[in-house]
Specification:
Elements lengths: L3 E8 L4 E7 L3 H14 L2 E12 L5 H9 L28 E7 L3 E4 L4 E2 L12 E5 L5 E10 L10 E13 L5 H7 L5 E4 L2 E4 L1 H6 L6 H4 L3 E15 L5 H22 L1
Antiparallel strand pairs: 1-2, 2-12, 3-8, 4-6, 4-8, 5-7, 9-12, 10-11
Bound molecules: zinc ion (ZN).
The site of zinc ion has 6 residues, from loops.
Amino acid sequence: MAIKLDKIKDERKRGKFTFLLKGGDEIFANTIRRLIIEEVPTLAVEDVEFRDNSSALYDEMVSLRLGLIPIKTDLKSYELKSKCKCEGQGCARCELKITLKASKKGYVYAEEAQSADPKCTFVYEKMPIVKLIARQKIDCTMTAVLGLGKEHTKWCPGWAWYQHEPKLKIGKVKDPEAIVKLAPKGVFEVKSGRLAVDQEKLYEWQSYEFIADLDPEIAIEETDNFLFTIESWGQLSCKEILSQAADILMQKAEEMENLI
Ligand SMILES: [Zn+2]
């Protein structure tokens, strides 16, 4: 089967990418989805060493918050600890140190943390970590490592989902204007008295199913193609996530081939 991808929408700022997957079946689409969620590695804080924490939050609670802040991940510079040459001892290839020192009254934000690697910093600068009152302090060193979403959700690079591509079959609709009003702007329009659909707008509309109940001349058909969406949490771009998932699939196939 020849796989084809047609880009539908690439919203880089929102970290969302939608494409049409042609030539694959449910098994293939679901394999890619699961590889994205479970196997594409990202950096996340794994250990935190506190020198001082007089904030209202216990060390464990601060650590939990730090662990869940996405870190920009450079997969060329880092290696999973289990695959690193240092054999799990910890080195610059498999560990990233981030320090956080704050004593000012008010919120402590993610941007105040100093990463040893300027390429790999917390993604969301204004994510609050803890709130300090007068004379409170926080001083800690974090160790971030690469990990997989199947071990802990903090390493998950984003979310992925798919559905069969919807196609509408439209006949002579009785009241096309009424249908236009019921759908989000731009999905339908009336062209020389007949109802016409904008296919790309239809892809974005999640709850189109009811439209078939409004007029017997409207029928929803699903094609064999898949409308696939990836939403990144920020560590990697959607395209990096997708190409990583494809690489991992190839590696797994090769590993299996070597065993035969
Ligand atoms: Zn190492």
